[in-house]
Here is the input.
Amino acid sequence: MKKISSYLVYAMCIVAIAFSAGAFFKAYAHQPVAAASAPVGQPVDLTYAADKAVPSVVHILSTQNSKTVTREVQSDPFEDFFSDPFGFFGNPGHGQGGTQKRQFQTPKRQGSGSGVIISSDGYIVTNHHVVDGADELTVTLNNNKEYSAKIVGTDKTSDLALIKINASGLPAIAIANSDDIKVGEWVLAVGNPFNLTSTVTAGIVSAKARTMGQNGVESFIQTDAAINRGNSGGALVNARGELIGINDMLYSETGSYVGYGFAIPTSIMNKVVDDIKKYGTVQRAFIGIRGGDVKNQVDAEKQQGKEVDYGTMEGVYVAEVVENGAAAAAGIKAGDVITEVDGKKITKFGELTAIMANKKPGDKLTLTYLHNKQKVSKTVTLKNEQGNTNVVKQADLDVLGAVFRPVTDNMKEQLNINYGLEVMKVDNGKMKKAGINKGFIIQEVNDTPVKSVEELQEIVKTASTSKDPVLIVKGIYPTGKKAYFVVDLQE
Here is the structure.
């Protein structure tokens, strides 16, 4: 259960990333969101919405299998002495209370959450934190049919994931434009709290474009529909039963529902899903600033006894400008306030985040901002996190141009190591360019121990889409000589 501070604070954030604060719980074995939407001034019958939405919401069981892990532990000098008083077996730290490596068996772990069927051929949207680390995913439909699911792709920044089951003719939910919802509308939250399948709660949209200080892409729909453990990844729907958001977290000081939940709007979900299908990862564009709501900045300075006037109390205060970013090219300086994007008024950071979440590197937009309270407008070209406009794709192991296998027991004993990947063959690729040859044993990549080919694959995927797409490879030769190499993953 992830908990955050229970009061709002001013937060700093990168470009398309929104900030604020509160005490929050992810609702995958944690707690998600709930909401509400309704016709103004009229009694609302939500039975139609429930009938339309419930068949499209699934239960997801995530399983992490038991694994053998090696950890360094503090050794007991007395235990070492009595087990090996003369040091015949070379116990590390023998008699000195040092550290030694021991193997442990992790327990099998399971958690549950919800998901939403978005296409009849088996694509399902849920939260990243519902499927993160899962070895197995079991999806149960509303009619109690069970399927194994595979992860198509995940996006930790937005806390969204796309999974797929091998099925057809599924009841896909209708997807509405979340930008069209209004504060005060009735909505339903549909999910599986506490493993109670097909649970529906009702409420209203309490606010839009909320930011929670999670250091992610945030422009949440806030609702007072009850959200509890297991609701994460479920559907937030309008009075017509159309999807307007994916339930994500709740606000609570205790871990139990106390009034407010938060959902990721479909305007953000749609782009994440499209990018994962097309590129394998989300193409995210950045303006190149850190900042927050101008009102929060004014309030913070007043608490310090300062009197400030930025020319407005609505907009995005720029606390820092990233070098070589789009904002720097537009002439924006720290202390400026962004008030419009492409002619649309911006009153808070969450609104800017929502716009940026639908942009891609290479897109152009016009920023209007106040500099010394004077209005300025500039058109800029957005860049990716790596500082260019190229498509960012997750690299596969093929890009390394090498073949690997776990190090043999004989080699472990010879080199006094516990794990590693031996380079069996090197062809034309990134590793050859870096100078890595056949026989080298990889033990760490980017400060992460590597014990299997699968672990190396995950590290390569993560690094290839990061701000600095490089691998720092550390290891040992069969002669015992240690070495490290820098592998550049950029094309």
Summary: The chain has ten helices and 27 strands. The chain has a mean pLDDT of 83. Residues 266-279 form the longest helix (14 residues).
